[in-house]
Write a structure and sequence with these properties.
2 domains, about 170 residues, elongated, mainly alpha, Serine Threonine Protein Phosphatase 5, Tetratricopeptide repeat, 11 helices
Length: about 170
């Protein structure tokens, strides 16, 4: 019986993942509902449920499944990234910063984590730390420079001389 349930769960998770890849988050949620409540669904299913809610713009609702996955699988970088995304969009920038710091404990050389942390620190008004992490993102992957102009998260520090110097804009 346990093997059958495990196989069924994996099939449902794959189906939900397929719906997400097709841009059909509500169908993913409906599919995952067949697994039961959050307590019964398992980390992968919870992550997929959170991703579907996030895609639907239900950031506040997505936080709960993501937090449960983070407790169960604390080294899952994608969960911390999704948590940061949702925390930011619910006005909890301090929690978004904490999520990126936690992710950096696991993968300290991942440019995306430094870039996102720089965004959140900028929004939090922590210019100096934002510049440190933005510089680190650039050092790891120079392609992130191209994203800065269109990133509104940097608006609070865009006119800062340190920010302009980092981008090579001069003052």
């Amino acid at each position: 019986m346990a093997v059958t349930n495990r196989i069924r769960r994996k099939q449902i998770e794959r189906q939900a993942e397929g719906y997400l890849e097709l841009g059909m988050p509500q169908q993913a949620i409906d599919t995952l509902a067949r697994l039961g409540r959050d307590a019964e669904i398992g980390p992968r299913g919870l992550f997929l449920r959170g991703e579907a809610l996030k895609e639907l713009g239900k950031h506040r609702e997505a936080i709960c499944p993501f937090e449960k996955v983070a407790q169960a699988v604390p080294d899952a970088i994608e969960v911390w990234l999704s948590l940061g995304w949702c925390y930011k969009r619910t006005g909890r920038v301090d929690r978004a910063v904490a999520a990126m710091l936690r992710a950096l404990e696991v993968e300290p050389n991942r440019a995306l984590l430094h870039y996102n942390l720089a965004c959140y620190l900028s929004l939090a008004g922590d210019k100096d730390r934002a510049l440190v992490h933005l510089a680190r993102a650039f050092a790891l992957e120079a392609e992130y420079r191209a994203l800065v102009d269109s990133e509104p998260d940097f608006d609070p520090i865009r006119s800062d001389p340190g920010f302009q110097a980092l981008l090579g804009l001069g003052v």
